[in-house]
Amino acid sequence: MADASLAQADLPPPFPQMDPELFRRRFGRAWSFEVVEAFDVGPRLRRVVYTAPDLDQFEHKPGQEVILMIPADGGHERRHYTIRSLDKAAGRLAIDFVLHGDAPGARHCRSARAGDRLTVLGPRGRHVLKDGADWRLFIGDETAQPAIFAMLETLLAGARADVFLEIESDADRQPLETRGEVNLVWLPRDAPAGQSQVLLRAAEGFELPPGEGHAYTLGETSIIRRVRQHLIGRGVAKANVHSEGYWRPGRIGGHEHVDD
């Protein structure tokens, strides 16, 4: 495979052409990735591992994402996925996909085979682990687990974090390795995905520790918005509540920034 760096002109349509500096700030770098392997890491979670010839130049912060240009219906669909892990020495970058529905991302991870190639943009994303927090709170559903685990794994020894993760059932629990002092609570949902209120109830019942806290709320857009508003209403600084809507029921490609 040739150099992993691609020019804008190499990107599949209908990708917009723009000023190179604006492109870099908005999308990061364009890469040509190749699938190494794909396997299940849980009943509803599948991992795809990619490589590229100069993956050693890939610089990201845990919690950031890439944009996958997934072939679909004669064209391409743009889908945002968090980088689960990066091993530069081994030349391996992993992304975890939640197996639900018939969306382009789900079809890609189910059909991915060694040697398949994919155009990827990134890294990008502003919701990463921030310094200066006395405590951290992570709230999300299983679509947020890759991002949350990627951040938790980089906590320094003694760093405090409370985590509430909504899952379909206890079978979806995943092991976590971290040096931080992490209280991880798995919450099997009590209603269909997108309707369960377990995350909001967890936020309402969480006793805010003293000091400056940072909260990371990621998952279904409407629920994440309510959790965000609740935390801000209780006094967590708006700038310290990092929120992202990864999906919405009935909508394909529902990635949204949640700032209100």
Automatic annotation (TrEMBL):
<dbReference type="Pfam" id="PF08021">
    <property type="entry name" value="FAD_binding_9"/>
</dbReference>
<dbReference type="InterPro" id="IPR039374">
    <property type="entry name" value="SIP_fam"/>
</dbReference>
<dbReference type="InterPro" id="IPR017938">
    <property type="entry name" value="Riboflavin_synthase-like_b-brl"/>
</dbReference>
<dbReference type="InterPro" id="IPR039261">
    <property type="entry name" value="FNR_nucleotide-bd"/>
</dbReference>
<feature type="domain" description="FAD-binding FR-type">
    <location>
        <begin position="28"/>
        <end position="130"/>
    </location>
</feature>
<dbReference type="InterPro" id="IPR017927">
    <property type="entry name" value="FAD-bd_FR_type"/>
</dbReference>
<dbReference type="InterPro" id="IPR013113">
    <property type="entry name" value="SIP_FAD-bd"/>
</dbReference>
<dbReference type="InterPro" id="IPR007037">
    <property type="entry name" value="SIP_rossman_dom"/>
</dbReference>
<dbReference type="Pfam" id="PF04954">
    <property type="entry name" value="SIP"/>
</dbReference>
<protein>
    <submittedName>
        <fullName>Siderophore-interacting protein</fullName>
    </submittedName>
</protein>
<comment type="similarity">
    <text>Belongs to the SIP oxidoreductase family.</text>
</comment>
